[in-house]
Structure formats: structure tokens, C-alpha cells
Write a structure and sequence with these properties.
Shape of chain A: globular
Mean pLDDT of chain A: 92
CATH class of the largest domain in chain A: Alpha Beta
Structural class of chain A: alpha/beta
CATH topology of the largest domain in chain A: Carbamate kinase
Oligomer: homodimer
CATH architecture of the largest domain in chain A: 3-Layer(aba) Sandwich
Largest interface: A-B, 37 and 37 residues
Largest sheet of chain A: 8 strands, mixed
Strand content of chain A: 25-35%
Strand order of the largest sheet of chain A: 3-6-2-1-9-11-12-10
Number of strands of chain A: 19
Low-confidence stretches of chain A: none
CATH superfamily of the largest domain in chain A: Acetylglutamate kinase-like
Number of domains of chain A: 2
Helix content of chain A: 25-40%
Chain lengths: 404, 404
Amino acid sequence: MKIVVLKFGGTSVGTIEKIKKVAQIIGNYKKKNYKVVVVSSAMSGVTNELLKKSNLISENFSDAEHDVLLSTGEQVACSLIAGRLIHNGFKSRSWLAWQIPIITNGSYKNSRIYQISKIKIIKYLKDGGIPIITGFQGINLDQRITTIGRGGSDASAIMLAKFFKALRCVIYTDVEGVYTTDPNKLSKAKKIKVISYEEMLEMASLGAKVMQPVSIQDARLNRINIEVRSSFVKKSGTLITKKSNIKNNKIITGISSTHNDSKVTLVGVKDKPGVAASIFKPLSKNSINVDMVVQNISQNGKETDLTFTIKTDDLNRTKKILKDNKNINFRKLVLEKDVSKISIIGVGMITTPGVTFRMFQALANKKINIKVISTSEIKISVLIDKKNSKKALDVLHNEFKLDK
Amino acid sequence: MKIVVLKFGGTSVGTIEKIKKVAQIIGNYKKKNYKVVVVSSAMSGVTNELLKKSNLISENFSDAEHDVLLSTGEQVACSLIAGRLIHNGFKSRSWLAWQIPIITNGSYKNSRIYQISKIKIIKYLKDGGIPIITGFQGINLDQRITTIGRGGSDASAIMLAKFFKALRCVIYTDVEGVYTTDPNKLSKAKKIKVISYEEMLEMASLGAKVMQPVSIQDARLNRINIEVRSSFVKKSGTLITKKSNIKNNKIITGISSTHNDSKVTLVGVKDKPGVAASIFKPLSKNSINVDMVVQNISQNGKETDLTFTIKTDDLNRTKKILKDNKNINFRKLVLEKDVSKISIIGVGMITTPGVTFRMFQALANKKINIKVISTSEIKISVLIDKKNSKKALDVLHNEFKLDK
């Protein structure tokens, strides 16, 4: 069967008019003789509205009931989409997670799909029906409703594509695709036609707006081709696929930047085993996410400096934890708030020497000072002053010819 | 097990504050060692909001999807109630129709409960839990969501009381109980402490605001004691029970009045078999509800006059149907818009002679003219000028000492 999975996000089904538009898009696939499996999120705003209610009921609202409550959002959207398709003359119906069923494991609010029963949906597809499936949810082995913590409806779509061996999973959203960099920050940013899972994962700060990284990872593991495209503009989007499917790789595919980071340097830390762990353990326990970590070579064999970045929102808590914790010894704490992490990402850099040099040279030419450097196989990140962030994006976009 | 079923209507759970109040009421039953089964409607306004959406999607929205859509309303209310009970330290959870399951038959939008599986709920009650069950819905044998056409959540509550052999079914609503007559029309109307099913059914025009007649009928058939009381005021309500449970029956229990009726008289109808049927068939086909019907004795053996009442909203359609239908022969059509039906209801009248006379005399004393009379075993209805309606309520309320 030529199955495609189409996933519609909250903004794509945010109003009645948009739902009518979505039904047209679905109908067009059906007319091209695809077997169409649809997954929908809740209409935008609805989930927050429900969350607000639960918070008013209790600041510590039951996790299990939270899932019962929130799952209604997708149910409403799916019944309306199915209703519109029926209105348009198609055979369609909503399928709720318990009807299929979609089985999850893990805890409430944070479950993961581990099994989707195929028999009913396959039969329905063979009968010419268009199933509209509630995203973001499943049931557990106790037959209770669960919601999918990470990835939400994207994760549902990827898993449906996996279990139904779909040709493609199309993520309809409010952007036209993935861009070389954030178009709001750099107007000459260009839509990327095709990108590898690995690059997409590294472009988290861009990618998160389009798709949750956990879903990209799931797609990568299951080799599912994802197309990200707009529900509102009839243009081809971005294909996320495996490296070997991509011909003519550019050296660099995209550039990401962060703008809420802070730099923390502990000066005069004892240079002995276990010191780094003693610093990061209390931070991790307090859910403070540490990003770039750099430790300089010890100058005298006794003391060293340790630098890392965190979200600026976590800065005060971090300061308190470091100062209060008697196990952490350092001479001085240096904090810097207005920093920005710029990353260039591309599988091409693996086989192309000199990328690091070109990046540093390009920044140096614009007199942009690099504070911290960190690299992975397909990404080079540098920390710079936030005020230089836009200039850096611009010069690197030109350097690697991303607008070509 | 000492089981009580508590049902909360839409206005009772209309806001977060009201849901908190409802959770207190439920908790109080639990503290008195009852096994409490709760049924809830959707928060008031929600169902209409959902219906509006479906109408915008299609004027002919799918019945099956209508049920999927509307059932979310009760799901939201139940999760919030359960969440509040958990917050208050009770063991509670929402139970959706498919989880129990509650099995219905009949068509979408208009199904009826025919089986409720007891095993899971009984186990949960024995474990000390308070189940919060979605009213107004079930699933059919195709495992699809259905809604209960007539009676809604009241019907769910009665059926739960039946299957779980509850001591009592308490209907929490926005009125304090059933009154001798509508308190908005007659301020001296008194709350009735106890009333029989039969009287309650006859008091449809009063009763409908409190409970759907179909649910009262279900309660009667299954001998379920119903208490109707307010969620907002801590006062005892009205007990609806079987006649033999009621001591010291009054002759008359209540008085109802209608105020949107019209009288239709066909003058000079052929007096032969099948004539009445030929008149009422097209009305029935057009869903026009005919209430009081009176046919005078034929004066000359050839012609007669036929009078009946309908809702004034249906008057124009009725006129058109009667005039357009060539099978209906009459000399003249007399329409009267501003009429009111006054009914006195009471099981006591079966054994008490002279009630009819007392009613007519009391009205005559106030110079109120009676246009049409119709009687049943426990009800006497008269049609009068609408302008006399309040005066008639008042004089009859006094005559039968309903304020005592």
C-alpha cells in the first residue's frame, strides 16, 4: 500500500477555516490514490486553556487526570477534520487512541508509544477510509489515557509512519520548512530542500520550532522520510532524510544561534579527579541544563579554570548552588550574561578540511572575538558577545554561500 | 454496599469554583461511608460551543463524529472533578464510558444505555475509590462513542443507579427541587418534599426543568428513588419515589401552566372514520406536537368541530399544512394564539371525588372561562386565556392548599 502519514499541528487546525483547508489538503492526497493516515494536534490555544483549568483546580493536579483532560483537545480536532472530509464526500472517521489501540509505556504526562495495533486501521484503509488519528496520546496497559511527553503529535506521526511502513511522513505546520538560519534574524536565510537527520538534530535551536528533536531521532532510527511544509502556502518544504539519500552535499547546511545563554567561569578550581562531577551533579539535580563545557589545561598542575554555558533564566539559581555547595572549591566566580552561541552545521565538514579555520577567519575579519569553542563531528559552535550575533550570522551565511 | 449515585448537571460544574464545591459535596458523602458513584455533565456552555463548531464545519455534520465531538465535554468535567477530589485527599479517578464500558444501542445522537459492566467499578468502589463517570455517553458494539439522545446525563445516572442497585440517585442541579408550581410565576409556590413518579411525569412542564421525563420514566420502571436538590444551597430537595412510599398524600401535588400554546379549531369537519387521522398524520410527519385534542359531538351526524393545541412556534407551519393538504376538508379554520394550559396534578384525586368540580368552581368564581378540558387519571387540564394564567395559578394554589 502507498501509505502517507500527514500530521497537522495546532496552528494548522487553529480555526474552523483552517480545518476546512486541511481537509482539502488531505482530500488531494486521497485523489492521488495514496492511502492517507492523518494525525492531528489540538486546535492551537486549546491545550493551554485546559492546562489553565487544571492549575486552578490544583497546583499539583493529578498526572493521570491531566492526560484525560488534555487528550480531549485532539479528539475535538479529529472529529471536526473527519466531519469536514465526510462533508466533502470522502469516507473518513476519527480514530481515538483507545480504539486502535495505540499502546504506550512510561509514566503519565511523559509516556512513549511502543506498540500500534495495525489490524483495524489497515482494514479501514483498504475499505477506502481516511483515518483521522488523535496525536499526542495513547493508552497504557491499565487502559488509561496517557499523553506523550516529548515530541507530542510529531512522535505519534513518526510512530504511525513506522508501524504502517509509510512512504513518507509529512509534517504540516506554520512554517514553510527548515531554513539555513532563522529568517527572523537574517532575512536572506534560505529554505533548505533536503537535510540529513543528523544535521537536523544538530540544528536543534532551529529545528525545535519545526519538530521536536526526539521525533527527528525516532525518524532517524526508523529511517522515515519526513517532509516539513506549510499548511497555508502551497510550496514544497524541506525533506529530512538519511545522508545517503542526499546528493551534492553542501559543506555547511545551516547556522543556528542562541540568544538566552550565559557563561559561567569558575577560576582556580582544584585540578584533581571528580572535581567536574562535584560541580555538575548539584546543577543536574536542580534540572539546570549545562551546554558548552571547556576546561583549560592546568597551568601549575594544581589549579584550573572551568567554563560552561547555561540558560540565562537559570543564572541566579546556578550562582546560589555553586556558592552554597561546600564541596565545590574555587577562587573566583566570573559570570557573563550577554553571550550568544553560533553554530555551523553540515555533514559536509566531515570530509572537507579547513572548515574550522574558515569560520574563525571570517569572524576575525569582522573583529568578532571568540570566547569558547566546542565541536562535534558535524557542528562547530563558538560563544561570542550577543551584540555580535547578527553580524556573525551574516558573515558566516556569506562565507559558506548558504544563500546560493 | 451502600451505594449512592450523584449526578451533577452542567450549571453545577459550570465554573472552576463550582467544581470545587461539587468535590466538597462528594467528599461529604464519602465521609458518611457511602460508596459514591458520580456522573457529570459537561460544564455549562461547552456543549453549545462544540455544536457551533460542528455547524460551521458542515450544516449536515456527521452523526457519529457529532458524538465523538460532544463527548469531550463530559470528559473534561470528570477529569477536573476527579483532580479536585485527589487534591482533597480522596482516591478518585475519571471513568470514561469505554473504560467501564457503558454499552448503548440505537443510533448515534440518540442511543440508549442497555448494559453497564459492573466488574471494574465495583472493584474500584471496594478499593475505596470514587469513580467520576462521564454522563450522556456510551459506546456501541462497534466500539464507537455514542451520545444518549433523550435524558442525557440524567439517563446515565438512573441507569448507573439501576445496574449498581444504588440506595438513591441524587440529581444535583440549579434548582432546590420540584415546586407546587413554577416559583417564577407564583411566588408562594412551595417546594414539594415527596412526589410520585406518576405525578412527576404529569408535571412535565415543571419537571422538564428539573429532569427529563424519559429519565423519570426509567426511574419508575426500575423503582429508583431520586432526590432532586441544589448544588449551591444546602437544603433538602424533592424525593421522587413510588406512590406506596408516600404517606399523607395531598389531593393535589402541583399545578403546571404552559404559556406558548395556541388553539386550532377546524370548523365543519366531515364526521366519518379516518378524518382525525388524515389531519394529524401530516402534522406528525412535520414533527408538530399536538397536545390537547377535543372533538365535539356531531350535531347533525354529518359535520363536527375539531380542536387541538400546539406550540405557538408551530402555528404558521400548522396553518400551511392544513390549508395545503387537499385530503383535509373543513369549512373554517379558527386560530387562537394567546392561550394557556393549566393542569392540576395529584395521585390523591383518584380516591377523592369532586376535584374536577372544585377546580372549575374556583376558576368560575374568578370569572375565568374554560375553553377546552382534558383529563387523565391523575391530572385535569384546562385551556384558558393566557391573560388569566397567573390568576388561575393563584386561585387553584389556594383552593388545594398547596402553600400549607
